């Protein structure tokens, strides 16, 4: 078998086809044929049939350990062959085809949702995952993944975090005692 060029992969979800790496413009969206969620930007694509994978879905490992849970990659059966519905325990959307699962507690997560940071900083709040009841931005009930500031009791939905503008860069403060 000939070696696979560096900018192509062979993926078990699309056997017999080579997927070419694309660095597409970030404003162009696509539906990932691996995890069935919307993607934007870099991806792998089969030029023969337009099968597309997020860059991470194309390279995600079979097992990984994250701050969330020890996780194993699962390939979900076709919709007609399922016994029950499953949702991502981070974003609340349904999981389709590729997703990660904790075998001990059945925690399910999309490949991209698994890449969320354990903590982040937004404005003046250091935020950690939490179990809040109300979002400080939209005032809606929190039923899925959210971040919380333990110092001031600010809880924010994941969607609201992603929709907020990034915090401003610090500005230089002039030295108050002359000098120039």
Summarize the structure.
With 180 residues, the chain is mostly beta strands.
Essential attributes:
180 residues; mainly beta; Wheat Germ Agglutinin (Isolectin 2), domain 1; 3 domains; 4-stranded antiparallel sheet; 14 strands; DC1 domain-containing protein; C1-like_sf; DC1; repeat
Q: Give the biggest sheet.
A: 4 strands, antiparallel
What is the CATH C-level name of the largest domain? Alpha Beta
Strand content: 25-35%
Globular, elongated, flat, extended or rod-shaped: what is the shape? globular
Spatial gap, N to C terminus: 70 Å
Query: Judging by the overall fold, what is the CATH architecture of the largest domain?
Result: 2-Layer Sandwich
Structural class label? mainly beta
Gyration radius, rounded: 20 Å
The averaged pLDDT comes out at 76
CATH topology of the largest domain: Wheat Germ Agglutinin (Isolectin 2), domain 1
Low-confidence spans: 172-180
Q: Tell me the series of helices and strands, N- to C-terminal.
A: EEEEEEHEEEEEEEEH
Secondary structure: number of strands:
14
Write the layout of secondary structure elements.
Layout (H helix, E strand, L loop, with lengths): L7 E3 L7 E6 L5 E3 L6 E3 L1 E4 L6 E3 H5 L3 E3 L4 E6 L22 E4 L6 E2 L10 E3 L2 E5 L16 E4 L4 E4 H6 L17
Antiparallel strand pairs: 1-2, 2-5, 3-4, 5-6, 7-8, 8-9, 9-10, 11-12, 12-13, 13-14
């Amino acid at each position: 078998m000939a070696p696979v060029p560096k900018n192509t992969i062979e993926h078990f979800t699309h056997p017999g086809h080579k997927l070419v790496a694309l660095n597409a413009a970030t404003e162009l969206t696509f539906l990932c044929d691996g995890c069935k969620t919307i993607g934007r930007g870099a991806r792998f694509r089969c030029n023969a049939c337009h099968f597309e994978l997020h860059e991470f879905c194309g390279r995600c490992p079979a097992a990984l350990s994250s701050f969330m849970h020890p996780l194993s990659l699962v390939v979900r059966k076709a919709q007609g062959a399922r016994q029950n519905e499953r949702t991502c325990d981070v974003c609340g959307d349904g999981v389709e085809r590729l997703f990660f699962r904790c075998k001990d507690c059945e925690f399910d997560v999309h490949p991209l949702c698994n890449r969320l940071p354990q903590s982040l900083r937004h404005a003046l709040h250091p935020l950690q995952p939490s179990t809040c009841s109300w979002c400080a931005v939209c005032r809606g009930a929190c039923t899925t993944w959210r971040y919380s500031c333990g110092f001031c009791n600010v809880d924010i939905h994941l969607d609201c975090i992603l929709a907020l503008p990034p915090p401003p860069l610090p500005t230089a403060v002039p030295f108050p005692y002359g000098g120039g």
